[in-house]
Specification:
By secondary structure, this protein is of the alpha+beta class. It has 3 domains: 50 residues, 2-Layer Sandwich (Uridine Diphospho-n-acetylenolpyruvylglucosamine Reductase, domain 2), CATH 3.30.43; 114 residues, Uridine Diphospho-n-acetylenolpyruvylglucosamine Reductase, domain 3, CATH 3.30.465; 93 residues, 2-Layer Sandwich (Enolase-like, domain 1). It is 34% helix and 25% strand. The chain contains 11 helices and 14 strands. Helix 9 runs antiparallel to helix 10 and helix 10 packs antiparallel against helix 11. 42% of the residues are buried.
């Protein structure tokens, strides 16, 4: 049953400082921006939150830049802006590729990187990329700013270390050395939630991250370690399967996801020689 909007409230601060003050005084406020997931929850009546704070117009949370060789993407930067960004195309092409497979043009023009991170779905298209890229999540509250490594951000299914009074203000991505690779497997390449996806980097060290195979995005450290030391792909595949826990759901089966995860690992290793 659709949500009853009369029972909900919305505040629209005009600055980041004002937004943080509101969150300090009322931590029950739920941050929103593009609302591409929020509207789905409202339509089906599954959205538990009733009070919202709109961040869409806050310039402090927007934009793409490089500072001291670190790519910084503001939380409310849209997928369309990521796809079009020369900085992203040059430094993190796998992120541009992932953004290009998020929904259709409507979603790409409204959906934000910060929203995808905050939503904390293991099927979030950009999350494996950020994990493989060694990204950092910048959190800010009225008390100050802290930066959390992406692989330490999630604590469980749709949960994270973000406190109620904090906002995700940006994602930071250090320079990536090595060849980047991204692949999404779904009913369709876009406008469909993934059955499984993988992002990886092959350089001096190997980094491999997978989505839709566990309660959170998985940084497959053991499989990456096998490949980094020159181990056989069969050994790496076995290590990978021990690191993931795919389940049966409406989109796929655990057995299918496990088989495809191994296939994607082999494909990554073959095409990045």
């Amino acid at each position: 049953m659709p949500a009853i909007f009369e029972k909900m409230s919305l505040v629209r601060p005009r600055s980041l400082t004002a937004a943080l003050s509101l969150l300090t005084s009322d931590p029950t406020l739920t941050p929103i921006a593009g609302c591409t997931d929020v509207y789905v929850g409202l339509h089906f009546g599954t959205m538990p939150h009733k009070r919202f704070i709109d961040l869409w117009r806050l310039k402090e949370l927007h934009g793409i830049s490089v500072d001291r060789d670190v790519l910084r993407i503001g939380a409310t930067t849209t997928y369309a802006e990521i796809i079009a960004s020369k900085l992203v195309q040059k430094r993190v092409p796998m992120l541009a590729a992932a953004a290009g497979e998020v929904g259709g043009a409507q979603i790409q023009n409204r959906g934000t990187l910060g929203g995808n991170v905050a939503n904390a779905s293991p099927a979030g298209d950009t999350l494996p990329v950020l994990a493989a890229a060694g990204a950092r999540v910048v959190l800010r509250s009225h008390a100050g700013t802290r930066t959390v490594p992406f692989d330490a951000f999630y604590t469980g299914y749709r949960t994270s270390v973000r406190k109620p009074e904090e906002l995700i203000t940006a994602i930071e991505i250090p320079r990536i050395d090595g060849r980047q690779w991204w692949r999404k497997v779904g009913t369709r390449r876009a406008q469909a939630i993934s059955k499984i996806m993988m992002a990886a980097v092959r350089g001096k060290d190997v980094r491999i991250a997978i989505g839709s195979v566990a309660p959170t995005v998985v940084l497959a450290k053991q499989a990456a370690a096998v490949l980094s030391r020159g181990g056989a792909i069969a050994e790496a595949r076995a290590a990978l399967l021990a690191e993931i826990a795919p389940i049966d759901d409406i989109r796929s089966t655990g057995a299918y996801r496990a088989a495809v995860a191994g296939n994607l690992l082999e494909e990554f290793w073959t095409v990045t020689k």
